[in-house]
Design a protein that fits this description.
Order of helices and strands: EEEHEEEHEHEEEHHHHHEHEH
CATH class of the largest domain: Alpha Beta
Structural class: alpha/beta
CATH superfamily of the largest domain: ATPase, nucleotide binding domain
Mean pLDDT: 94
Helix content: 25-40%
Largest sheet: 5 strands, mixed
Bound molecules: zinc ion
CATH topology of the largest domain: Nucleotidyltransferase, domain 5
Number of domains: 2
Length: 324
């Protein structure tokens, strides 16, 4: 029996909970604003206060909490517990010793991990990756993140960047990406990519209900608007998801060629479009991954939803505590 605190730091909110590492159940999930503009010192101090509150409100003794895991939305130095580069948090986050600071404030072993690698680890332990030893996860939302597990080991790569599937080049000389490269998957299949394809279609006068749905205030178009239009039969909206699915299929096909996982897990808000996205992915996979026995590779939706990061990073803390 072991209890761990899992904490998921997002651009908007910090989510934290105590997780029973045997069952994956999380208790007293607490959400509070990140307010990163107050600076990393304030954020870390508030985080520690939040953890104290979680312990005080639980019926556990402090010494029953065996570790703390913190999921960070950016590049992190996993070994040293230091943040490298975080895109979506205002303030100074380069070389911040997050794990060391929390460990000093709390007196509990603390570990950090990239947020989507945390989700990957969570889905492997208690979600859509259960009972499989190799999987690739694609998390499709505002950006596209990912994670790779091979033989039950989370692949971190030489400097911790393995699994950045959203920055796989799928179009030579394609759309410029925030990472500096052109033609990254993220520019073709993320929420903003779907949104901008929809705005373009309406602006170009395509025959679609998308414009009417937002009273022609195109800023109000979201991936969900496109989804609603598609399920009501709008051909343009369906095609936008079809194109995004094809690009996603090309990327997943490349993952399969490299790794031949047992399972590919697709999560994130955009994945809620279900078959609109999954069907073109499957079609594309048949074309691309001709050498792997594609019928044996399961393509499944993620299961843990918003709690995946909290659960996953608490289990990452356990993984490290047990290894020491
Ligand atoms: Zn990129």
């Amino acid at each position: 029996m072991g209890y761990y605190i899992g904490c998921d730091v997002g651009g908007t909110n910090i989510r934290a909970a105590i997780v029973n590492s045997d069952s994956g159940d999380s208790f007293d999930l607490t959400v509070q604003p990140t307010n990163a503009h107050e600076g990393h010192e304030m954020v870390l101090a508030r985080m520690a206060a939040l953890f104290e509150e979680l312990i005080a409100n639980s019926n556990l003794r402090r010494d029953q909490i065996q570790g703390i895991g913190i999921g960070i939305p950016g590049k992190v130095d996993v070994k040293n517990g230091i943040t490298n580069f975080i895109t979506n948090l205002p303030g100074h986050w380069i070389n911040v010793p997050v794990a060391g600071t929390i460990q000093r404030l709390m007196g509990i072993p603390t570990y950090i991990l990239n947020d989507v690698r945390s989700i990957t680890w969570g889905e492997l332990k208690f979600g859509a990756g259960r009972n499989c030893s190799s999987m690739v996860l694609y998390a499709i939302g505002t950006g596209i993140g990912g994670g790779i597990v091979i033989n039950n080991k989370l692949l971190l790569g030489n400097s911790g960047q393995a699994g950045e599937v959203g920055h796989m080049t799928i179009v030579p000389d394609g759309i410029l990406c925030n990472c500096g490269n052109r033609g990254c998957l993220e520019q073709y299949a993320s929420g903003p990519a779907i949104r901008s394809a929809a705005i373009k279609a309406v602006a170009h006068g395509a025959t679609t209900i998308l414009g009417e749905m937002v009273d022609f205030d195109l800023n109000r178009i979201t991936p969900h608007t496109v989804y609603e239009a598609a399920i009501s039969g709008d051909r343009i909206a369906k095609d936008i998801y079809y194109q995004a699915g094809r690009y996603l299929g090309i990327a997943i096909g490349n993952s399969i060629v490299h790794i031949e996982p047992e399972r590919v897990v697709i999560g994130g808000g955009v994945a809620e479009a279900g078959e609109l996205l999954f069907a073109p992915v499957r079609e594309e996979l048949k074309r691309i991954a001709t050498l792997a026995p594609i019928e044996n590779i399961e393509l499944v939706p993620a299961e843990l939803g918003n709690n995946a990061g909290v659960i996953g990073v608490s289990m990452w803390a356990k993984h490290n505590v047990m290894a020491e």
